[in-house]
Amino acid sequence: MASSLDRETALELVKKGGTLLLLDVPQFTLLGIDTQVYSVGPNFKGIKMLPPGPHFIYYCSSSKEGHEFSPTIGFFLTIHSFEIIVRKWCQREEQLIKVSEEEVII
Asked: What is the DSSP letter of 28?
């Protein structure tokens, strides 16, 4: 996402953008935000430098080989400046779930 930004915009997002922390998302999961889609790698932890405002997050889990995918699940969220939103992968339900305030230590 940052590679298509000019230097000034990128610096502004570093200073004021939000972060979507996505924990334990399995490798090969297809994850999208707005119009960008990514295949999750082994070290994926989330997305940073998100512009404040509404965003559509969507994903579909895959087989271990990354060849078969489950139905796509999506949700909207509004990100504010400096905000960190945390979601965690629930293996049993194969979806991202909210993390309780007690679980989040920042």
From this structure: T
What is the side-by-side order of every strand in the sheet holding 73-79?
36-39, 30-33, 53-60, 73-79
Q: What is the pLDDT along the chain (106 residues), one digit of tens a residue?
A: 445 678 888 887 888 899 999 999 999 999 999 999 999 999 999 999 999 999 999 999 887 776 788 899 999 999 999 999 999 999 998 899 998 776 666 5
DSSP designation for 72: P
The Cα 40–Cα 42 span in angstroms is 7
Neighbours of 12 (CB within 10 A): 14
Two tokens at 32? 């999208």
SS3 label, residue 92:
coil
| DSSP-derived pairing of the beta strands 84-90 and 18-23 | parallel
